[in-house]
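1st attempt posting a full record on here, be nice pls
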Amino acid sequence: MNIRQLLVLLIVGASTTACGGSDILPDPQFENVVDTTTLYALSASDLGTSSGFDMFMARAVKPELGQVFDFVVDFDGSAAVLQPARVVGITLESGFVTVDRGFEEILEAPLTDYVSDSSLTLVSDEVFVMRSRINRETCGIFINLPHYGRFRVLTVDQAAGTVTFEHVVNRNCGYRDLNLGLPID
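the predicted structure (as tokens):
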């Protein structure tokens, strides 16, 4: 076995372990908390209003100011939609998974089936899980790791052009645990 094959085996082993919960993840630094965020429609809001969401910081951002985001909200006719970064032309890995469970019941983010190339229509009480873009600067251990979060739409206000979410975002690299408090894995 040459050095290249050995490195590939180490990386594959590390990635398999990291994705399923492991001892190779750094100790968690951030507690999971429930928060609420209101986003404004990307195409219809005034400049300076927040229409994007950054999962690394778990906060609303202003894409037109060059702030990095994982998704934006907009309105398509009368429907509110969530658009992962790729849908608006930015090649990032963020994506969503819809779930048929209540917000409080989602205690761990799934590993697969995230949609990054299409929009999600948002209605009140819609529940979904997001996977963030990869942050190669702060979340690169042996592999590049995302952040995960669970979201519930609280209100869609077409007249104001806003969507309000309740969310729990795990700001610790690679941790899929969405329980409140300090994550376990």
